[in-house]
Amino acid sequence: MNDFAGLVAVVTGGASGIGLATAKLLTGRGATVVALDLKPDGLPDGIPGLAVDVTDDAQVKAAVDEVVERFGRLDVVVNNAGISAVGDVTVNSDEEWLRVLDVNVVGMVRVARHAVPHLRRSPSAAIVNTCSIVAWAGVEQRVLYSASKGAVHALTLAMAADHVREGIRVNCVAPGTADTPWVDRLIDRMPDPDAARAALNEFQPMGRVVTADEVANAIAYLASPLSGSTVGTVLSVDSGMHGLRLRPP
Ligand code: NAD
């Protein structure tokens, strides 16, 4: 498929995991993709990167302006950069709360703020935000991360309403546990990483976590005209975690 031919996309957090898989997929389908990342290292040939911290409004604006100056347009924004925090409400400090919300929520706002004026000129404008299953499922020891992703869901709906009449579709994907360096880092800290990985897979209704490529495919669908009348929705890519309750085997 070459359905993104001629289109220009930015992917935040595009140098790792879901963002990298998305940047590769959209590039393979004809888009010019720029990965915006804190550390835009190790990107494959054909995917330019820009060093951007989404908590820095001036950096975000400069990056969006540079993309439009270099490539002449902007059609697709994948708001994907995110960080996590572990703990219940007694654990995380105000500084940690504000840092995670700054990256996960306000970071998306900053990118959209500077991208929307350009997207208004695109005939196939789309924004896809990376949410998470934790926005709806109470997950232990993830109070801060869950609150941030609940905000991403509400942000997606509100942005979709604001921009639908301008021809900009805003949607989000909600991965369950995805096989990315983020999850590898968590598992590698456990006493027995192999056993932890096996248990994590067994816990999923499909018997395995989802792949970064599967999430990227959902993002590409929401970013492409194939989903032309889909707006303000959530597409779950979660091995069945959010909706299924299986009997014990
Ligand atoms: P990852 O850690 O592999 O990649 C995240 C990327 O974001 C990294 O390249 C990192 O440098 C970049 N980044 C972090 N802070 C940034 C900042 N301030 N500015 C710019 N870039 C920044 O993680 P991933 O698993 O691919 O996660 C991507 C998104 O998917 C996140 O929003 C995460 O919340 C969401 N998600 C992941 C999972 C999962 O299980 N992996 C599940 C649900 C949702």
From TrEMBL:
* Keywords, alphabetical: Oxidoreductase
Q: Which GO molecular function annotations are given, in alphabetical order?
A: oxidoreductase activity
Which leading EC class covers this enzyme?
oxidoreductase
Top-level division of the source organism's lineage: Bacteria
Q: List the InterPro entries.
A: KR_dom, NAD(P)-bd_dom_sf, Sc_DH/Rdtase_CS, SDR_DHRS6-like, SDR_fam
Under Enzyme Commission nomenclature, its number is 1.-.-.-
Q: Where in this chain does the record put each Ketoreductase domain?
A: 7-167
- Read off the Pfam families from this record: adh_short_C2 (PF13561)
Protein family membership? Belongs to the short-chain dehydrogenases/reductases (SDR) family.
- List the protein's name: SDR family oxidoreductase
Biological source species: Streptomyces roseicoloratus
